[in-house]
Amino acid sequence: MGLAVSRGRFPRRLRSFLAEQGTRVATARAGNVIGGGDWAKDRLIPDCIAALADGQAIAIRNPHATRPWQHVLEPLSGYLMLAQRLYEQSGDRFAGAWNFGPNPSDVQPVSWVADRMVERWGSDARWLDSGAGGPHEARLLAIDAAKARAELGWRPLLSLRDALSWTVDWAQRHGAGESAKGLVFEQIEMYEALAAL
Hints:
Blueprint: H1 12-20, E1 27-30, E2 32-34, H2 44-53, E3 58-60, E4 66-71, H3 73-87, E5 97-100, E6 107-109, H4 110-121, E7 127-129, H5 146-152, H6 160-175, H7 180-196
Parallel strand pairs: 1-5, 2-4, 3-7
Antiparallel strand pairs: 4-6
């Protein structure tokens, strides 16, 4: 059986089947997530950290591209909140599509992010416009998380500046030999402390 999903909605037949089974389904997406332990290639933050750790200038190919940056713990907290709401008695109203993104003020260009990374890293850190171009990329990406804020009561807790600071701190401490697991748990505890305020 083929499944056609448009505009984040399931076909009526599938929605009916899921409802009959008592199954609540939601989709969730996030902005551009950052954080310690991301070693993927051709992603801004891992590329910045790799260059900085090697004492090299960060080569930026699209410094004016703007993205909705957020620490990975932000959407994860939203996903957990959504899962809890889906599980609760009134969870049917939470089945649907959700976005988890940063505050609008944290939608920043790559050059701004690179400046903060260099500033936080210290020493002789720097970045340069490589002019490499690379594959076509949209100049502006954003994500509207108004629904998650209004209906779930979710909100981001970290500014982009803080998210970058946490990411650089994680990378530098891991590079100095600290355990990835220990650093992850420490940052989760820090995040939970913010959430409790």
